[in-house]
Amino acid sequence: MTQVSDVIAALDERYPPRLAEDWDRNGLVVGRPDAAVERILLAVDPVMAVVDEAVDQDCDLIFTHHPLLLRGVHTVRADSSKGAVVHELIERGIALFNAHTNADAAAGGVADALAADLGVVDTVPLVPDSVDPSLGIGRVGRLAQPMTLHQFVERAADALPPTAHGVRVAGDLTGRIETVAVLGGSGDSFLEAVRAVHADVYVTADLRHHPASDAREQALLGDGRPYLVDVAHSASEWSWLRGAARYLEEALGVSTHVSTLTTDPWTARFGATGS
């Protein structure tokens, strides 16, 4: 019988906790370590819709990317957003475990999956780990065949889960690209690292106005690179769940279900210009 503790051990081996950022929170959030696990639901966000899906799928454990309790809370009362999830999980006997920035940096994690979906090969970490430089934050690599920025953005739109956010781009759509940097989740704090590796384009999420504007102004002092491609946060971090599901099935013999629910908070978009 597979127990929650077995799942924890397997996931910690695959996504070592030491790779997590100091500010991050990972691991078992709800559940008994000795509880039995036969079926696992994998999702990006630990929201109530995902809990409902776990109930419908008869899952014993939910494995998410994002932590439920990243910042300190002072109550988990059932009429609060976090508390409602905690109560529902406990009442349904469902455990909750997450791997966040450690899964970003690990081999076969978020960055590798995003790069693979976009056709980026020969990848190395954008910011190598200080202990093992083969691991680390983000990835940079090349396209097997160079293409225009327009063609690449179309590839990204086709490869990633559809969201109301869509795919935003900054740069010359006719520009030729070959070297690609990617980082799942919020990535504007790594714009300087992208410039340092001379990437033609950078794919990430949550690019804020001022960092993106500054990066584009700096790029235009040269050849206009790196171009920027901004996708929905949840879409940039979904692909790795499929590999994690295969790993759990092979390592533990459990069954899995990868959620395809769109948990991006935005539900519609109006007035967009360009194409």
Order of helices and strands: HEEHEHEHHEEHEEHEHEHHE
**Tally of individual helices:** 10
When the domains are counted, the total is: 2
Q: Examine the coordinates and then state which fold CATH places here, giving the name of the CATH topology of the largest domain.
A: Udp-n-acetylmuramoylalanyl-d-glutamate--2,6- Diaminopimelate Ligase, Chain: A, domain 1
Strand content: 15-25%
Percent range of helical residues: 25-40%
The CATH superfamily of the largest domain turns out to be NIF3 (NGG1p interacting factor 3)-like
Structural class: alpha/beta
- Show unreliable segments: none
Please report the first level of CATH classification, the CATH class of the largest domain. Answer: Alpha Beta
Largest sheet composition: 6 strands, mixed
Report the CATH architecture of the largest domain.
3-Layer(aba) Sandwich
Task: Evaluate the radius of gyration.
Answer: 19 Å
- On the 0 to 100 scale, the average pLDDT is 97
Sheet with most strands: strand arrangement = 5-6-8-9-10-7
Count of distinct strands? 11
For the terminal residues, how far apart are their CA atoms? 53 Å
Shape: globular
Note down, in words, how this protein is organized:
InterPro entries: DUF34/NIF3, DUF34/NIF3_sf. Belongs to the GTP cyclohydrolase I type 2/NIF3 family. The strands form 2 sheets. Strands 5-6-8-9-10-7 form a 6-stranded mixed β-sheet, with helices on both faces. With 275 residues, it is of the alpha/beta class. It is built from 10 helices and 11 strands. β8, α7 and β9 (201-205) form a beta-alpha-beta unit. The chain has helices at 4-14, 48-56, 81-92, 101-105, 110-117, 149-159, 191-196, 209-219, 233-236, 240-252, and strands at residues 27-30, 39-43, 61-64, 95-98, 120-128, 136-148, 167-170, 176-186, 201-205, 227-231, 255-258. Helices cover 33% and strands 25% of the residues. The protein folds into 2 domains: 4-100, NIF3 (NGG1p interacting factor 3)-like (Udp-n-acetylmuramoylalanyl-d-glutamate--2,6- Diaminopimelate Ligase, Chain: A, domain 1, 3-Layer(aba) Sandwich); 107-234, Udp-n-acetylmuramoylalanyl-d-glutamate--2,6- Diaminopimelate Ligase, Chain: A, domain 1.
